[in-house]
Design a protein that fits this description.
The chain has 15 helices and 9 strands. The chain is α/β, with parallel strands linked by helices and 341 residues long. A 7-stranded parallel sheet has the order 1-4-5-6-7-8-9. Strand 7, helix 13 and strand 8 form a beta-alpha-beta unit. It is globular and about 55 Å long. Bound molecules: coproporphyrinogen III.
């Protein structure tokens, strides 16, 4: 497949930056909300026909240069025997059923058994898509916070308790998550994904000391563990703009930068062999279209000359975004051009 997105991941030059958007299928789309009237979020993820349909919604409406599998980073937690619920407007809730009290006996069931529907969705999508398909996972550190907090947290008090009082046990959880994630990503690769993105969403809330010990080594193991598959890996973290040297150290094909960072400056710190993805503020999708267009133009002008630049947001599209704004963003990037040879 000769595609701008895959070429950019290899840091080859492209006539314009490729563009796709995190959370490109979601509640900002009326068609998605209509499906949510009939099915729960988990049903949409687990029913491969529905997940295929949802993945394709933004592709048909906005024609970005890549699709991202419709699923969630938390589905893997079910393989550990935890229960996952998505309540309306309260985000994810994870019930661990006391299993963390006897960590030595905590053994996940195989991903093939529990997450087979993901592979079926990927296979369905590969038959339908003419753009590359991105698979994904949550990073062990971010997943561990969900297990320990039971939900999206503001202060991460439980996680910090484990970090400080039960470091060995915390490492044990990260070990299990790392091994299971490697299996999960291999299952996605066997299904046919063209690239993978690792989401480390909560690292911006922790100190360098915590991340050095509990986050980076596991990220590195995942990237290294997949190197010989040849599938490009995008490493994205909310907070990554402060951690570029550590992300480079993990050696992914691409670094996804959040909206806080000054992208041209960050790009100057990243070797030319690593692609860069980012980093428009998602809130601009609720701004006047003229302002959005101006900012998209500015970012493409400042970054578009760099082989290996992939246009994206600095974080996922919010439910409040306007579909017209998403269309305008993608059109504006697609109309930009550079004499890159
Ligand atoms: O990007 C995509 O379009 C692919 C699908 C995708 C979803 N979640 C769908 C989703 C991806 C890649 C994710 C990743 C994810 N999930 C992350 C990492 C990225 C990030 O946001 O930092 C995290 C932390 C989660 C966990 C999660 N799932 C949360 C915190 C929530 C609730 C917040 C919210 O936006 O509602 C979800 C639910 C979720 N995941 C929805 C979607 C479309 C909304 C569910 C609904 O329709 O009610």
């Amino acid at each position: 497949m000769d595609n701008l997105f895959l070429r950019a991941l290899k840091c080859q030059s492209t006539e314009r930056p490729p563009v796709w958007l995190m959370r490109q299928a979601g509640r900002y789309m009326p068609a998605y909300r209509a499906l949510k009237e009939r099915y729960s979020f988990l049903e949409l993820c687990k029913n491969s026909e529905l997940a295929t349909e949802v993945t394709l919604l933004p592709i048909k409406q906005f024609a970005p240069d890549a699709a991202i599998l419709f699923a969630d980073i938390l589905l893997i937690l079910e393989t550990f025997g935890f229960t996952l619920r998505f309540g309306e407007d309260q985000g994810p809730l994870i019930e661990t059923h006391g299993l963390l009290n006897s960590l030595q006996t905590l053994k996940p069931i195989s991903v093939g058994e529990s997450l087979n529907y993901i592979q079926t969705t990927i296979k369905n999508l590969k038959e339908e898509l003419s753009v590359p398909l991105i698979g994904f996972c949550g990073a062990p550190f971010t997943l561990a916070t969900y297990i320990l907090e039971g939900r999206s947290s503001q202060h991460f008090l439980e996680t910090k308790k484990w970090l400080y009082h039960k470091p060995q046990e915390f490492h044990h959880i990260l070990e299990l998550l790392t091994e299971q994630t490697l299996d999960y990503l291999k299952l996605q690769i066997e299904g046919g994904v063209d690239a993978l993105q690792i989401f480390d969403s909560w690292i911006g809330h922790f100190s360098y000391r915590d991340l050095e010990v509990y986050c980076f080594p596991y990220l590195k193991r995942i990237v290294e563990g997949l190197k010989k598959t040849g599938i490009p890996i995008i490493l994205f973290g909310k907070g990554s703009s402060a951690l570029i040297p550590e992300f480079i150290e993990c050696n992914p094909q691409c670094i996804g930068v959040d909206a806080l960072g000054n992208l041209p400056r960050i790009a100057s710190e990243i070797p030319p062999s690593i692609a860069i993805q980012g980093n428009l503020d998602p809130d601009l999708l609720s701004a006047p279209l003229s302002l959005l267009e101006q900012e998209v133009f500015k970012l493409t002008q400042s970054m578009g000359h760099r082989p290996g630049f992939i246009f994206n947001l600095g974080h996922g599209i919010k439910p409040t975004a306007s579909p017209l704004a998403v269309q305008k963003l993608i059109e504006t990037v697609k109309n930009s051009s550079f004499a890159l040879t």
